[in-house]
Specification:
Elements lengths: L4 E2 L5 E4 L5 E4 L2 H13 L2 E6 L2 E8 L2 E4 L2 H14 L2 E2 L7 H10 L7 H7 L5 H8 L9 H12 L1
Parallel strand pairs: 1-7
Antiparallel strand pairs: 2-3, 4-5, 5-6
Helix pairs in contact: 1-4
Length: 149
């Protein structure tokens, strides 16, 4: 991970009439947020009419959710070193922007930036809500047999 990030890669702030700042997120900045989430291991795969949301952690693949993506991004906003947090824009302005205008939207950009093709086995484990590394081999075989019926 970089030592610091450019705030303008994710959000732009403009001074408002109340002597505060208003954050705005362009389509390019929105895509940058999704690319950052992808770098953190998050992904989406289509399985029929279902969208499977997951997170890779090392060799492990785990079920995830949009809520876990939001929490991860909020933690990033709270802790990352941003170039551009000077000039009157504070960390509180950044956090307020996150809560006032949730930056994660389940739209075409969200899907295209996070989309990944999963293997049959990976799809199975995401759909059953299980982590591959936490199941005994006999249980994996039993569940996989049920899926093939």
């Amino acid at each position: 991970m970089p030592d610091h990030y450019e705030l303008s890669d994710f959000v732009s702030f403009e001074k408002d009439s109340r002597a505060g700042y208003t954050g705005r997120c362009s389509a390019v900045q929105e895509a940058n947020i999704y690319r950052w989430l992808k770098e953190q291991g998050f992904g989406i795969s289509e399985f029929g009419d279902e969208l499977l949301i997951f997170r890779r952690s090392g060799e492990e693949i785990l079920p995830a959710s949009v809520i876990s993506m939001k929490r991860n991004f909020l933690d990033f906003l709270e802790t990352a070193n941003f170039a551009g947090l000077e000039n009157g824009v504070s960390r509180n302005d950044l956090i307020n922007w996150f809560y006032d205008t949730p930056p994660l939207k389940r739209n075409e950009c969200f899907i295209s930036c996070l989309k990944e093709k999963l293997s049959t086995e990976e799809s199975f484990f995401i759909r059953t809500g299980c982590a591959l590394t936490f199941l005994p081999f006999s249980e994996i075989c039993r569940k996989f047999t049920l899926l093939q019926c």
